[in-house]
Hints:
There is one protein chain. The chain is α+β, with helices and mostly antiparallel strands. It folds into two domains: 1-92, Arc Repressor Mutant, subunit A; 96-159, Ferric-uptake regulator, C-terminal dimerisarion domain (Dna Ligase, domain 1, 2-Layer Sandwich). Helices cover 45% and strands 14% of the residues. The strands form two sheets. The chain has a three-stranded mixed beta sheet with strand order 4-3-5, with no helix packed on it. The N and C termini lie far apart (48 Å).
Amino acid sequence: xxxxxxxxxxxxxxxxxxxxxxxxxxxxxxxxxxxxxxxxxxxxxxxxxxxxxxxxxxxxxxxxxxxxxxxxxxxxxxxxxxxxxxxxxxxxxxxxxxxxxxxxxxxxxxxxxxxxxxxxxxxxxxxxxxxxxxxxxxxxxxxxxxxxxxxxxxxxxxx
Length: 159
């Protein structure tokens, strides 16, 4: 985990939130599973291992509160599920985090951290006066593993 429990406590205090076990556990689960893009149900399954008395409604309330306080981000990956990921430390409103690469074959979701749209955002503002606060970009395609499987299958078929 890249952020310590003490840093989480400090983040919550800075946002004026009470430090609770539930909030800390949700933040820890998201930090430990940074590239998994978890649903509230996924978070619940992991949190209840350490905190069995917690309810799913508490997870939803906690995630919503952390979202409002900009400690987590909500993402939609067009699969009908709302997913959450922990924000980058020090990133506030309007701070871009990363893009997503979505495999249409196996459904794997890979983060892509290089943001190549900064120049475009600047140009949009210069030309239109519109100030871009954030953007979301999803690339759909096929991951390396699925391409290898497909190429392997295609080679066997051609013989």
